[in-house]
From TrEMBL:
Protein name: Beta-D-glucoside glucohydrolase
Family recorded in the similarity comment: Belongs to the glycosyl hydrolase 3 family.
Organism: Coralloluteibacterium stylophorae
UniProt-recorded Gene Ontology molecular function terms: alpha-L-arabinofuranosidase activity; beta-glucosidase activity; xylan 1,4-beta-xylosidase activity
Signal peptide positions on this chain: 1-28
Length: 904
């Protein structure tokens, strides 16, 4: 195929320049000598990707070239070039493209400390991405979230628990982040030597972790030590070990330069030092920030030229398309520089097989049936089980299945959003924690009470209980339960519906795609009756059957328009677009034994779509009191609370007590939940705390007073089943914290200070609430016989460290064996200790296994030598610590290391 890769950046640039000149010359000769029907070089599959890409670029006008350098590249019909949008997301499943398997959020997958399992998940995600892409092509669709270039993973270091996007990362440690990131990238990009399966994107390069409200204008000046020892290592590993296809710049400045137009980051480090030969893209509208919020340039054409000159080939936004032609005409940049950048982009597309016959591309054969397959659903359950961290257990867990009554309380117990985090797809059948517990206890009465809102002052449309199926029927006399749903291709509910079915409950929340893929996965919709991505409508109709007589509050919530009729009377009417899920209610006097006609009409305009139908029955107690009643009458209480993606996330526009713009100003559990948790404990019933969260929570009171605490993170579509499996002992927990949990009274450094001093287990000098790497099990493990195969080691040498680990308990379980290194007498300021090896192993009761790690000083003991402008290894004695967490070292030994250079 002629696909030999040139990796050195200078040689590669020279080669591309030669190819471009050759393409221009060949184009001129071709026009004179060849007939119009001759195949252009970019269609010739016998040529290499670079030559073909250069030929294609040479045929474009200046304006066409600029337009192809933005994420939503338009079609060029005269060249047979279809439209392509580079914007796709796959953080923990294919996101925003309709139905897809939703795995635990990235921070949860990191908590598994299971690299092989992460590889299986990434492979499943890339299978679904390929399948969905080719299905979109069969439908003639080329839009956003339908392509093969994915903007994942996020390998920023989660340096501060207040950052709302920390949930997208693999935690606070550079080594764990690198190992998880490499495996994720390899799973996305595949193992074919010719064609990439997908393009992965390492983001956000390189010093970026909040605050969200300031990200468009702040300037970070980290110390050289922090830059090279904390912020850069994971990116370097993904570039040099995983051959990641793309890198995304950040919004903020670094040392005065826009991270999305930084000569230092993108040219000096990424291409010259590390030899990166992929493409760089800006974060969305970050090029616009260069001349607006940052004020680095005065005009948009100067910003566009600066971005391309300093190494950013692709602009998420429209600055390049609108202003690069002007920049060329003003002499700010040459057209040849655009050609070089654009050629790199088309090489990437060609390597994905977009310009070759599908039958020749291995990945194009991926069947659509892999999407939301049973195998992927089972994998989502396994990863959710492995991600759960048991923080504390005084013997209450596993819970007995012989209970007569169990109370499940809390604002995230029955909330689908508590499963999803952010950047998610639409799961086919998400299982909340409440649903998982009920399925696990068919003989036990499980009483549910929400108890309180997630946070104070939040108008929560999910607070009101849904109308359950037994109180709905699609038509008089029907034995079915639910309402008749009629799905329409437009928002006007006109003509014949393209799909008719009975929906047991009205509780839908689709992502930025549409219900199309979800319905197709169920076999209910196909090319002839698929609901469109946007501008669709649904009418639900049937009868409402009140269980008791009295005054009901009936609530409908929607994003966007909704109308509710009861017995032909319009009782709620909001038939207009909404920015987010909006609820309204009506009070009605209803009689038991009567059937009331009910009709709910809903339309979605664009992007996110959601609708629900709920009610509050007569005599309902206030939520807080109802929760306490449920606890008093139960044998035990499971409180499910914490956070959701509705309050922590990316640059959010809503603020609540303890939250600001998606970040947190208070690392404690929200006050509404703390009050309820303390009141539940006061009933005298045993309380298990299950936390849904994307970040560390200061649960000091719970640690001191409750017998058991679990962290479920945002556990994905099977999260409820996974939590139930752990609660009742069907799964033995072994997740580990990828972040430090701090105490509520810990004084953290200012959030906008990027110095690492006082942060993470590597530099925090205080006593953590729960340490990095912490996690308990229903069994226990003994460590013994640490062996180091040599006493002295050269800087470029290698040693093997071995330890015996035995399951000393009575049930099988997993242990995460962790290796940390630290200098005994440091010659300079260093991290307190650093993770440099881990392995998750499964042991039967009484079983012993030898676990081995290889250590290399020039990789594992290096520090940044600013004077030499490179990494170096200090000579001296180093301690090797092996144990169950960063604060639970079981065995240790020392090794003498010679000093030396360690590359750069």
């Amino acid at each position: 195929m002629g696909t030999t890769r040139i990796t050195h950046p200078i040689l590669r640039r020279a080669t591309l320049a030669v190819l471009l000149l050759g393409a221009l010359s060949a184009q001129a000769q071709e026009r004179e000598a060849e007939p119009a029907s001759a195949q252009p070089a970019y269609r010739d599959t016998s040529l290499g990707f670079e030559e073909r890409a250069a030929d294609l670029v040479s045929r474009m006008t200046l304006e066409e070239k600029a337009a192809q350098m933005q994420n939503d590249a338009p079609a060029i019909e005269r060249l047979g070039l279809p439209a392509y949008d580079w914007w796709n997301e796959a953080l923990h499943g294919v996101a925003r493209a309709g139905g897809a398997t939703v795995f635990p959020q990235a921070i949860g997958m990191a908590a598994s400390f299971d690299v092989p399992l992460m590889g299986e998940v990434a492979t499943a995600i890339s299978d679904e991405a390929r399948a969905k892409h080719h299905e979109f092509l069969r439908r003639g669709q080329h839009g956003r979230y339908q392509g093969l270039t994915f903007w994942s993973p996020n390998i920023n270091i989660f340096r501060d628990p207040r950052w709302g996007r920390g949930q997208e990362t693999y935690g606070e440690d550079p080594f764990l982040t690198a190992r998880m990131g490499v495996t994720f990238v390899e799973g996305l990009q595949g193992d074919d030597p010719t064609w990439r399966k997908l393009d992965a994107t390492a983001k956000h390069f390189a010093v970026h972790s909040g605050p969200e409200a300031d990200r468009h204008h702040f300037d970070v000046h980290p110390s050289e030590r922090d830059l090279w020892e904390t912020y850069l290592p994971a990116f370097q590993t993904l570039v040099q070990e995983a051959d990641v296809a793309a890198v995304m710049g950040a919004y903020n400045r670094v040392y005065g330069e826009s991270a999305s137009a930084s000569e230092f980051l993108l040219e000096d480090i990424l291409r010259e030092r590390w030899g990166f030969d992929g493409y760089v893209m800006s974060d969305c509208w970050a090029i616009r920030d260069i001349y607006t919020t940052h004020g680095i340039t005065d005009t948009p054409e100067e910003a566009a030229a600066l971005g391309v000159k300093n190494g950013t080939e692709l602009n998420c936004g429209n600055t390049y398309a609108a202003h690069l032609p002007v920049a060329v005409r003003k002499g700010l940049i040459t057209e040849a520089e655009l050609d070089e950048a654009l050629t790199r982009l088309f090489v990437a597309r060609m390597r994905l097989g977009m310009f070759d016959p599908p039958e020749r591309v291995r990945w194009a054969q991926t069947p659509h049936s892999v999407n939301q397959s049973p195998q992927h659903d089972a994998l989502a359950l396994k990863m959710a089980q492995e991600s759960i961290v048991l923080l504390k257990n005084d013997g209450l867990l596993p819970l007995s299945r012989d209970m007569k009554r169990l109370a499940v309380v809390g604002p995230t117990a029955d909330d689908t959003m508590a499963l999803l985090g952010n950047y998610y797809g639409t799961p086919a059948a998400p299982v909340t924690v409440l649903a998982g517990i009920r399925a696990a206890l068919p003989e036990t009465e499980v009483v549910y009470a929400r108890g309180t809102d997630l946070v104070e002052g939040r108008d929560d449309p999910s607070a009101t209980p849904l109308i359950e199926p037994q109180f709905l029927r699609p038509e008089p006399g029907s034995s079915e339960r639910g309402l008749r749903g009629e799905y329409f291709r437009d928002r006007d509910l006109q003509g014949e519906p393209v799909l008719v079915r009975v929906d047991p409950q009205i509780a839908f929340r689709w992502d930025r795609g549409s219900p199309t893929d979800t319905l197709m996965a169920r076999g209910e919709a196909g090319p002839d009756n698929a609901v469109p991505d946007d501008d669709f409508a649904i009418r639900w109709s049937g009868q409402l059957l009140p269980p008791v007589s009295g005054r009901y509050r009936i609530e409908a919530a929607a994003d966007d328009g909704m109308r509710l009729y009861v017995d032909g009377k319009l009782v709620l009417n909001h038939w207009e677009d909404a920015e987010r899920l909006r609820a309204d209610s009506a009070t009605l006097d209803l009689e038991a034994g009567r059937a009331y006609d009910i009709r709910l009409e809903y339309y979605d305009h664009e992007r996110d779509a959601a609708v629900r139908l709920a009610w509050e029955q007569p005599g309902a107690k206030p939520p807080f009191e109802a929760a306490l009643d449920a606890a008093r009458n139960a044998d035990a209480v499971v409180f499910v609370g914490g956070l959701t993606g509705d309050v922590e996330g990316e640059e959010m526009k809503v603020d609540y007590p303890g939250f600001a713009g998606g970040d947190r100003t208070d690392i404690r559990l929200p006050e509404t939940q703390r009050k309820l948790l303390e009141a539940l404990h006061a009933t005298g019933k045993p309380v298990v705390l299950v936390l849904t969260t994307g970040s560390a929570l200061a649960v000091d009171w719970a640690k001191a007073n409750l017998p058991a605490i679990l962290v479920a993170w945002y556990p994905g579509q099977r999260g409820g089943d996974a939590v139930a499996d752990v609660l009742f002992g069907d799964a033995n927990p072994a997740g580990r914290l990828p972040v430090t949990f701090y105490s509520a009274d810990t004084t953290l450094p200012p959030f906008d200070d990027y110095a690492m001093a006082g942060r993470t287990y590597r530099y925090f000098e205080g006593e953590p609430l729960y340490a990095f790497g912490h996690g308990l099990s229903y069994t226990h493990f003994d460590y013994a016989d640490l062996r180091i195969d040599r006493e002295r080691l050269a800087a470029d040498g290698e040693a093997t460290v071995s330890v015996e680990v035995r399951n000393a308990g009575t049930r099988a379980g997993d242990e995460v064996v962790q290796l940390y290194l630290r200098p005994v007498d440091p010659q300079r300021e260093r991290a307190r200790r650093e993770l440099r090896g881990f392995e998750r192993i499964h042991l039967a009761p009484g079983e012993t296994r030898t676990v081995s790690f290889r250590i290399r000083p020039d990789r594992d003991l290096r520090h940044w030598d600013a004077d030499a402008d490179r990494y170096a290894v200090d000579p001296g004695e180093y301690e090797i610590e092996v144990g169950a967490s960063s604060a639970d070292v079981r065995v240790s030994g020392t090794i003498e290391v010679e000093g030396g250079a360690a590359g750069g």
